[in-house]
Design a protein that fits this description.
Elements: H1 2-10, H2 19-28, H3 30-34, H4 36-39, H5 43-92
Helix pairs in contact: 1-5
Amino acid sequence: MEKVVSIFKAHSVDALTRWRDAQRMVTESTEWKDDTELRKLPQLDVLLAFEDFSRIKTNEYEAVVRKAEVEKAKRVRLGREGFRVRRMISVVNPNY
């Protein structure tokens, strides 16, 4: 399984990679062709390794997206607060 995961990493399999493409990458890799023990693995084991790897990559991707959303919300909130402060200052001191 570790060998299969290393092939996934070497071929930049990510959260959006389909099983069909990942399977092709594995079976066409030199590691697969050179390692008879690896070729003896049932396709179900390769699929399970892909599912686990894909789940990890999906979680990483979702964490990055959540972080970006939080940062955007923070920028927007700070912008609103800055606008309110400027507005209050202009009400108190119209020449500001």
